[in-house]
Amino acid sequence: MAIKRRVDETAGRAALREWSSTARGQGKTARPVLAMAVRFSLEELASRAEGNSVEVRVPPFGVTQCIAGPRHARGTPPNVVEMPAELWLSLATGRIGWAEAMQTGQLHASGLRADLSAHLPLIEYP
User: Fold this and answer.
1) 52-96 pLDDT, tens per residue?
2) Which residues pair with 80 in a beta bridge?
3) Contact at 8 Å (CB) between 43 and 6?
4) DSSP string for residues in the chain
5) Among 9, 26, 60, 66, which is least packed, fewest CB within 10 Å?
6) CB 92, CB 118: distance < 8 Å
7) How far apart are the C-alpha atoms of 36 and 11, rounded to whole Å?
8) Are 113 and 54 a contacting pair, CB within 8 Å?
């Protein structure tokens, strides 16, 4: 079953491209653009890896559930991935790999299904 997208795909891709070009120039992305890029990429992950066994959190911008497996309904999910927005977008666009992201100390992943490396990158931008 396809996820219901809340972010317009064209606007989401544009925000991700803007983040990518700003990050390449070592600039700072405007907060609304950053938020849209995060939300779009989380929706993209959810659509490509449908399921409810892993919760991916990118505070304060968004959260999604993905990857097939046992569904979780109450309390803290057994499989949680959490990281800051810049790190998430770097992973989603292939600027950084999963192992390298884990070494930054900013990526927190718990649970047997919490390794997203098979699903990343989502969209590659130079």
Assistant:
1) 899 999 999 999 999 998 776 666 778 999 999 999 999 999 999
2) 55, 110
3) yes
4) ------S-HHHHHHHHHHHHHHHHTT----HHHHHHHHHHHHHHHHHHS--SSEEEEETTTEEEEESSS----SSS-SSEEE--HHHHHHHHTTSS-HHHHHHTS--EEESTT---GGG--SS---
5) 26
6) no
7) 8
8) yes
